[in-house]
Design goal:
transmembrane; DUF3667 domain-containing protein; globular; transmembrane helix; membrane; DUF3667
């Protein structure tokens, strides 16, 4: 939809005399559009632009959900003006996705009592738990007058005999801290997972690039496929969580896995122009490598989150 402009005859910024076809000043680049009009015109213009954007967003989401691979195909063919740009769409949907996860995580947090935290710590590492119990008992000793001396005594109880043992104890202590403050830990983990997903997106594009290298496509084409796929994945999870909210027995994980797998199959078939049978045999190793990559990155993300505690 072409924007309706109320044009100047002369640029108010630099004085350049416009020709009829000039939508922007050739001299300074300012838009040839007069905004000094009644408010009702500005309101009408705002709603016109909003409706146009909503129409573009609606068509983009509709094709993304119902026509696997179509947006990637159109992007690679250069048909881009009618749809929301892939990366902008990903950012918008991912913001909603992680907001929903944060709200869900916050609502499910249970605050553990001190006894429960101590019991959990004993299951993880009895040595650290014993040290903490010793430190607690030292509070009642009259010789220890200050918090500093108490901390020193507790640290002495946990002092390792060598560097390897020290690293293990430090790691377990961080793990105990990570599991104790559940709400803070979930928020930190969620933040790191969002970054992990952002890293995973170009990595999946690289996986596709390697598996379809004989087609001699540019990496950007595979990256666009990855962006659209992960955007759909976020939408599928959001829809699954919405169903789970009303029907508690609904299995979001199973729903997401099968929907994403089926979607990936049809998207690969459309974009890479192979038979259904050939696409199926490509889907198996691609999915396997992708899931292994997700598992490794997730473990790394959890480890980093624990070490940052």
């Amino acid at each position: 939809m072409e924007k309706k402009r109320r044009k100047f005859t002369q640029c108010p910024n630099c004085g350049y005399t416009f020709e009829e076809v000039n939508n922007f000043c050739p001299n300074c680049g300012q838009e040839n559009h007069d905004l000094n009009v009644p408010v009702k015109h500005l309101i009408a213009e705002f709603f016109e632009g909003t409706i146009h954007f909503d129409t573009k967003a609606w068509h983009t989401l509709k094709y993304l959900i119902t026509r696997p691979g179509l947006l990637t195909e159109k992007f690679n063919m250069g048909q881009r003006a009618s749809y929301v740009p892939p990366f902008r769409l990903y950012v918008f949907v991912s913001l909603i996705f992680f907001t929903v996860l944060a709200l869900r995580s916050h609502s499910s947090v249970t605050v553990a009592t001190e006894e429960e935290a101590q019991k959990k710590l004993e299951e993880v590492d009895p040595t650290i738990a014993a040290g903490i119990r010793t430190a607690d008992s030292l509070r009642s000793v009259s010789e220890i007058r200050s918090a500093d001396s108490l901390a020193t005594a507790a640290a002495t109880q946990l002092l390792p005999g060598n560097e390897q043992e020290g690293f293990r104890k430090e790691l377990m202590a961080k793990f105990a801290k990570f599991t104790k403050d559940e709400e803070h830990s979930k928020q930190k983990l969620l933040k790191n997972v969002s970054f992990m997903m952002f890293v995973l997106m170009p990595f999946f594009g690289l996986i596709l690039y390697l598996f379809y290298r004989k087609q001699r496509r540019n990496y950007v084409e595979h990256l666009m496929f990855s962006i659209h796929f992960h955007t759909f994945f976020f939408i599928a999870v959001i829809l699954g969580l919405a169903v789970e909210y009303f029907y508690r027995k609904f299995d979001v994980d199973e729903w997401t896995f099968w929907v994403a797998l089926i979607y990936l199959f049809f998207a690969l078939h459309r974009v890479y122009k192979q038979s259904y049978l050939r696409t199926f045999f490509m889907l198996i190793p691609i999915s396997f490598v992708y899931l292994i990559s997700v598992a490794v990155l997730m473990l790394a993300t959890v480890g980093i989150s624990i070490m940052m505690s």
